[in-house]
Amino acid sequence: MSTIGTFTIRPLDPDKDAELLHRWVTHPKAAFWMMQDARVEDVEREYLRIAAHEHHHAYLGLHDGEPAFLMEKYDPRYVELVGLYEPEPGDVGMHFLVAPTDRPVHGFTRAVITAVMAELFADPATRRVVVEPDVGNKAVHALNAAVGFVPEREIDKPEKRALLSFCTREQFEAARGASL
Fold first, then answer.
1. pLDDT tens per residue across span 168-177
2. Mean pLDDT, to the nearest integer, of 142-171?
3. Within 10 A of 61 (CB to CB), how many other CB atoms are there?
4. How many helices and strands in the chain, by DSSP H and E?
5. pLDDT (tens digit, 9 = 90+) per residue, 69-113?
6. Residues 4 and 111: beta-carbon distance below 8 Å
7. DSSP, residue by residue, 108-157
8. In terms of pTM, does the model score above 0.90?
9. Which DSSP category does 31 fall into?
10. Sheet harboring 150-156: ordered strands across?
11. Tens digit of pLDDT for each residue in 26-40?
C-alpha cells in the first residue's frame, strides 16, 4: 500500500474543471502538453470535444480527495495513433499530467502513473497500454520504464516526434512487484 495516500479517479467535467485544468496545462512544467498559450475557453473547448468523442475520455485524478492529476484514455484505433502502428485487440492509449505544486512529494508522480495504469488494467479487456510521449520528454520516459513500458520506435505525429511504447498487463505487474 502506498504511504503517499489514496488515489481516486472520476470523469472530468469540462465545464466545472476547465479553470483548474487551465492552470495545470499552461504551467511551464506542462510544456509537453502543448497548451502553454491556451485560454480557459480553449481548454474547456478541448475537453468538451474529448467528452463528446466516443473513443477518447478524460478523467480527473484525486489524491486524498483533492484534484491532483489528469488522465486521458483513448482507443488508438480511432484517436492519436491512427495509421502510425498496427493496433492489437485490447490496446488502450493513455496520457497523464500531474498538477504542478510548490511542495513536491518524493515518489508522487510515480505513484500517480502506477494508479493510472492500475485503473486502465482494472478493465479486463485492456491487454496493453500504448503511449506516445515526445522523444525529448526524458522524465516521462523514465517513469514509463518504471511501470513496465518498453519503447518500440520513434514515430512522427503531426505535432511532435514521439516514442511509441507499450506495456502489457504482465509487464506492469512485474514492474509493480519489483518496486514493492
1. 999 999 998 8
2. 96
3. 23
4. 5, 7
5. 999 999 999 999 999 999 999 999 999 999 988 888 889 999 999
6. yes
7. HHHHHHHHHHHHHHTSTT--EEEE--BTT-HHHHHHHHHTT-EEEEEEE-
8. yes
9. G
10. 7-11, 56-63, 66-74, 91-98, 128-131, 161-168, 150-156
11. 988 877 777 888 888
Distance CA 97, CA 109 (A): 9
Integer Cα distance of 67 and 20 in angstroms: 9
C-alpha cell at 177: 512487484
Q: Residue holding cell 493510472?
A: 116
Angle, alpha carbons 140-57-62 (nearest 5°): 65
User: Buried b / exposed e across 74-98, counting CB within 10 Å, b at 16+?
Assistant: bbbeebbbeeebebeeebbbbbbbb
3-state secondary structure of 43: helix
The chain-wide mean pLDDT, for the chain, equals 92
Beta strands at 91-98 and 128-131: parallel, antiparallel or unpaired: parallel
Question: Which is nearest to 123 in space by CA: 91, 85, 166?
Answer: 91
Q: Which three cell numbers stand for residue 55?
A: 473513443
Identify the CA nearest to 72 among candidates 99, 44, 51, 89.
51
Strand partners, 97: 70
Q: Residues 60-66: what's their mean pLDDT?
A: 95
Dist CA 46 CA 42 (whole Å): 6
